[in-house]
Amino acid sequence: YFSTWKHRGCVETHRLPDVVVDAMEQRASLAAAAAAAAGRGVDLNRPPAPLDAPFGDAVLKLRDAVLAAETCEELFTPQAPHITLALAGVEVISNGSGSHHQLRKLNQRLDLIRGATAKAGGVYLYANQRGCDGGRLYFDGCACVAVNGSLVAQGGQFGLEEVEVVTATVDLDEVVSYRCSISSLREQASTTSAPAVVHVDFRLCGEERPTMMAVGPVKRRGLEASKPRPSYATQPITPKVLLPEEEIAYGPACWLWDYLRRSGAAGFLVPLSGGADSSSVAAIVGAMCQLVVAAVRAGDPQVIDDVRRVAGYGSEELPSEPGELAGRLLSCVYMGTVNSSRETRERARLLCEQIGAYHLSLSIDSVVEAVVGLFAAAVTGGRRPAFKAHGGTTAENLALQNIQARLRMVLAFLLAQLLPWARGLNNQGGAGWLLVLGSANVDECLRGYLTKYDCSSADINPIGSISKTDLRSFLQWAATNLGYSVLAQVEAAPPTAELEPLVEGQQPQLDEVDMGMTYAELSLYGRLRKVARAGPAAMYNACAAMWQGQLTPQAIATKVKEFFRFYSMNRHKATVLTPSYHMESYSPDDNRYDHRQFLYNVRFVTPPQPRPRLSSRPPTTM
Predict the structure, then answer these.
(1) Most CB atoms within 10 A, among 10, 193, 464, 561?
(2) CA distance 419 to 433
(3) Closest listed residue to residue 450, CA positions, set 273, 268, 283
(4) How remote is the C-alpha of 11 from its chain's centroid?
(5) Is 286 helix (H, G, I), strand (E, B) or coil?
(6) Is the distance from CB of 95 to CB of 127 less than 8 angstroms?
(7) In 3-state terms, what secondary structure has residue 486?
(8) Nearest one of 155, 124, 157 to 140, comparing CA atoms
(9) CA–CA separation, 509 vs 411, rounded Å?
(10) 511-569 pLDDT, tens per residue?
(11) Hey, CA dihedral for 448, 452, 455, 459, is it positive or negative?
C-alpha cells in the first residue's frame, strides 16, 4: 500500500492539510481558555499553529534525550539501524513491530533485543502486535524494554486482552556511563556521521532525580519531602520464554478465539478419532476455554461481551468453569467403522468428558456400504472392490480407505451445519453453524499422507504447521498441565488410521509403516527441503553426514529418493490444504509459505538406467 522512503538521513518539509492546521489552532485555543480559567494567565506570544511538518528519516532531539526508531524486521537484518543510531548518540530506540509467532522464535527475538543494547548501550523499546490478523498468522506480543543488554520489563506472549501496556523506569545517565566505558565504542562513535535531527520541545524525564535510599523521611533542601519519593530504575529481570508445549497450547488457542468471535460462528466441530492429531486439536480448544474463563474472571469487558454473544449467555449469565463453556462451544464426533477399535472410541469419549465437550459417537458403516454398493451396481455389474487383506489390489485397497475418509468429511460438515439447531443452542449473533477444525499435522501434509478432501479438509486447522514430534510432546504436557489425563494414553498409542480391516496374525495398520518413513525423519526432511533449501543431492549429503555409521550410503540414498518421490507425487494436495495456524518454518502450505510448483515429474529422482558400454575398439576408418 506504500513505497518505502529511500532517502536515508534526509528530511523534507510538507504542507499540512488545512483541516489539521485548524484542529491544532482549536486545541491551542482550548488550552489557552483552560489556562485563563485556572488563573494562570494567557501567553500573548503564543506562536500560531505550524503550516508545515518535517517528513523523512530523522531522529527526535528532545530537551533531555534523543529518540529514534527502527521498524519491525530491521531488528533481524545484518545492517540493523540501531547500531548506527546508538553510535550517533541516540539513547532511546523504539521498534513498533508486527512479528508473527513461530515455534521457538521468541528466544531469538529477545537475544537480538538484548544484543542490540549490549553492543552499543541504550534503551530499546519493543512493542509488538498481538492477535490474529484474519489469516494464518498470529502475532504474539511480548512487548519489552531492554537497557544496556539487560531485560528490565517483558509483557505476555499470549493473551486475550486487546491492549497490554508494559512500563519501566530507566536512568539515561546509565546509558551514557555504559557507552563511555567502552573504548572501541567511543572510537567508532567519533567517526559516525550525525543523523538528521528534528527538534521537539518536550522533556522525557521527570524533574525528580533518583537519590540514595535513606533510612527515615527523605530530605530535600533541608525540608522533609512531602512529595512521593522519586522513581528508581527498574532492575533487570530474567526473560520468560515458554516451553514449546506451552506455545502449542496457547498460541493456536488465542488464534481460534480471535477467529471464532470474528467469524460469527457458534463454536467448533472436531471429527475426533481418539488419535494424537484430533485429540491435540480438541485439547487446544479446551485450552482456549480455560483462557476465556480466566479473562472473564478477571473482568475483561471485551471477552465478557464476546463470550455472551458467541456462546449465547444471557445478560446476567457468564461461564463459571472451562468445561461449562466447552459444552457450548466444542462439539466432537467419533465416526467409527468396522475397522475402528474399541480403544480409540473410548479415548475419544474420555477426552470429551474431561474437556466438557459435547460428544457424539456414530457408526458410518451403512453410509460406506451405500456408496460402495452404488459403485458396484453402476460400474462393475455387481463386482465389489476388496481390501488387500481380502485379496484386493492396491487400487481397490486405497479406494476403500479413501471413501471412509471422505465420507467423514461430508458428515462433519453436515453436523457442523445442523448440530446447533438440533441442540437448540442460542447464539446472539444469529449463527446456526459450527467451524469444522482440521487435524492434519505438517509432516503428513509434507509427505502427502492424507486423503484429498477427507477430514483434513475443514474450515481452519490449528495444528497444520506443527510436527508430529512436537504434538506428542504437547500431549504429554497437556495431560498434566491442562488436566486432560487421557492424553497420556493417546500419546502412548501407536499412530494408526484404522481404515483397513484387522486380520488375525497380521500387524495392524500403522502410519509410519504405511508412509515408509518415521515422523522424525519427515521432520528432518521438511527442514532440509524448506529451511536449508536442499534438493535431493544436498539432502543426501546432509543426511549422510548425520547418519554416518548408522546406515549405508545406499540406504540413505533410498530414503531421500523415496521422500522426494512421495513429495512430488502428492504435491498437488498442498493446493487445497485447509488454512492452518502458521507455527513451523517448513510448512508446505503453498498459498503463502511454499510457492513451488505443484506438478513435478515424479521420476526426477529415479536413477537413470545404465547405458550400454562403449566399445574399446578403435574407430573404423573409411
Answers:
(1) 464
(2) 7
(3) 273
(4) 37
(5) helix
(6) yes
(7) coil
(8) 157
(9) 24
(10) 778 888 888 898 899 889 888 889 899 999 999 999 999 999 999 999 999 999 888 88
(11) positive
